[in-house]
């Protein structure tokens, strides 16, 4: 007779079939494998068409920062040569993807309501032009094994730089972007971060890199000191990187400078005078459906959401002005005189 207390087959604590943690890990691994297969299929389709996609974040972050922990991601982020972006977009549409409204740095494509691809023509919050970023990142592109598929991604220094940018994009405490950056500060050695700073200077991302390290954690703040990064950043630079992902005015202005003239006119027309069909499609989007009264007519719901987008610019300005005060509340370490300087503005603005 087996002992029900010690027998691993009947023990509900150690039985992998009934252990909730084991079930969660198994489900996470299965989802990660599915996402990897989807990403590999999209990358393969683009590659066969002569387009070179570079995988960002997602499985790369999981392997480099969470090698022993189950981790999933929501979408596939791909950086494309901006000269081939239109070709890549049309190819995805031909594969059954539907294009959503663009961000200042990428288009989101969805298929079957579950598969999402973020197609980047540049990196967010950077001052160099999309073409310059693509060219300057070429020496930092390396091979990556995506579940048996040979793909390309950025090397560890460029990845660290991108993690910092992503953390500034998503400044909320507890957001996975902040957690990823904190883990990268712990995992990546100092030479990697020194190289990441050089990458940031190449692509015009020194300000977001500085802001990310200065505002994430005391350990990241110490790393910023070791790298010789400034403790104070100009208000205009804070405003530039305080981009609202849901569509604040500054982000919209950056987008209008980046896209071609014909596309710019279409975006302005859709924003200012959307058709009834466009209004009906807009209010189905999660950010509108979840923040406006369901019983209101679609046009009023869209007007309310647009009003919210416009008013969001004011908090960004306030946060930018208050950066020094918030820094003082977060960190009480004394400031060395050599660090009390302003960050130099980037010498090149986005096209």
Could you characterize the architecture of this molecule?
Helices cover 53% and strands 9% of the residues. Among the domains are: 21-128 and 141-153, Beta Polymerase, domain 2 (2-Layer Sandwich); 249-311, no CATH class. The protein is α+β, with helices and mostly antiparallel strands. The strands form two sheets. The chain has a five-stranded mixed beta sheet with strand order 1-2-5-4-3, covered by helices on one side. It has 17 helices and seven strands. Residues 1-13, 243-251 and 323-351 have low confidence and may be disordered.
Low-confidence stretches: 1-13, 243-251, 323-351
Q: Biggest sheet: strands, sense, closure? A: 5 strands, mixed
Based on CA inertia axes, which overall geometry fits?
A: globular
- Give the quaternary arrangement of the chains: single chain
**Count of alpha/pi helices:** 17
Estimate what percentage of residues fall within beta strands: 5-15%
What CATH architecture of the domain at 21-128 and 141-153 would you give?
A: 2-Layer Sandwich
**Topology as a string of helices (H) and strands (E):** HEHEHEEEHEEHHHHHHHHHHHHH
Number of strands: 7
Q: Please report the distance between the alpha carbons of the first and last residues.
A: 77 Å
Rg from alpha-carbon coordinates: 22 Å
Determine and state the CATH class of the domain at 21-128 and 141-153: Alpha Beta
Helicity range: 40-55%
Describe the strand arrangement of the main beta sheet, using strand numbers: 1-2-5-4-3
Class from secondary-structure proportions? alpha+beta
Let me know the average pLDDT.
77
CATH topology value of the domain at 21-128 and 141-153? Beta Polymerase, domain 2
């Amino acid at each position: 007779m087996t002992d029900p207390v010690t027998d691993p087959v009947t023990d509900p604590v150690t039985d992998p079939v009934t252990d909730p943690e084991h079930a969660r890990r198994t489900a996470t691994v299965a989802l990660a494998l599915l996402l990897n297969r989807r990403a590999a299929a999209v990358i393969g389709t683009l590659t066969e068409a002569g387009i070179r996609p570079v995988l960002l974040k997602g499985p790369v972050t999981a392997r480099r920062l969470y090698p022993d922990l189950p981790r999933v991601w929501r979408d596939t982020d791909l950086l494309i040569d901006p000269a081939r972006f239109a070709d890549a977009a049309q190819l995805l549409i031909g594969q059954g993807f539907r294009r959503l409204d663009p961000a200042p740095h990428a288009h989101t494509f969805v298929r079957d309501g579950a598969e999402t691809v973020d197609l980047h023509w540049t990196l967010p919050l950077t001052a160099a032009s999309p073409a310059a970023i693509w060219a300057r990142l070429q020496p930092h592109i390396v091979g990556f094994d995506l579940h048996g598929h040979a793909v390309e991604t950025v090397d560890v220094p460029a990845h660290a730089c991108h993690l910092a940018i992503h953390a500034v994009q998503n400044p909320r405490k507890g957001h996975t972007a902040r957690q990823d950056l904190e883990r990268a500060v712990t995992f990546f050695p100092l030479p990697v971060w020194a190289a990441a700073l050089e990458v940031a200077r190449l692509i015009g991302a020194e300000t977001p890199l500085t802001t990310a390290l200065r505002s994430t954690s005391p350990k990241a703040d110490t790393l910023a000191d070791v790298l010789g990064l400034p403790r104070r950043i100009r208000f205009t630079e804070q405003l530039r990187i305080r981009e609202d992902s849901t569509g604040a005015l500054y982000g919209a202005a950056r987008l209008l400078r980046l896209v071609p003239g014909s596309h710019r006119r279409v975006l302005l027309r859709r924003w200012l005078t959307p058709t009834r069909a466009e209004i009906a499609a807009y209010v189905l989007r999660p950010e509108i459906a979840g923040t406006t009264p369901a019983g209101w007519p679609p046009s009023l719901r869209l007007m309310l959401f647009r009003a919210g987008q416009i008013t969001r610019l004011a908090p960004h300005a306030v946060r930018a002005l208050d950066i020094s005060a918030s820094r003082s509340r977060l960190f009480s370490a004394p400031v060395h005189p050599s660090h009390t300087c302003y960050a130099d503005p980037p010498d090149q603005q986005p096209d």
